[in-house]
Amino acid sequence: MSEFMLRGYKIDELRNMSIKEFAEKVADSRVRRTLLRRLKLGFPVEWENFYRKCYLQKEGKYKKTVRTHAREIIILPFMLGTRIGVHNGKEFVELEIKENMIGRRVGEFVFTTKKVQHSNPGIGASKSSRFMKAKK
């Protein structure tokens, strides 16, 4: 099986990059713009806490799943292998960070809506159902 590469960089090379290097060399334009602006103006407190807890979890100092409501957080290379919980509007959905998730937003992997599954129509659902026998 071949080793995973992202835009010509191996995982070890990605882990050793700074956030600025990652943004300039690997990230797509939207992520690059966000990261470079955040480096200049400062990250939101929720992002900083999330990244800090992910780093501590990698070192083994934080045992719990890192949970967040902020679905726009960008997945960085140092987060590989961490377990996170992302809120979908109702509950926290757990995921493990894999290689192909690097440079994407956390919310992209947790859906906020479910597929609608309709069952049979009930009594009174249409004009013709008035003449049907009720199920017993």
From TrEMBL:
The keyword Chaperone does not apply. One of its GO terms (biological process) is ribosomal small subunit assembly. InterPro entries: Ribosomal_uS19, Ribosomal_uS19_SF. GO terms for molecular function: rRNA binding; structural constituent of ribosome. Keywords: Ribonucleoprotein, Ribosomal protein, RNA-binding, rRNA-binding. GO terms for cellular component: cytosolic small ribosomal subunit. It holds the Pfam family Ribosomal_S19. Belongs to the universal ribosomal protein uS19 family. This is Small ribosomal subunit protein uS19. It comes from Nanobdella aerobiophila. The gene is rps19p.
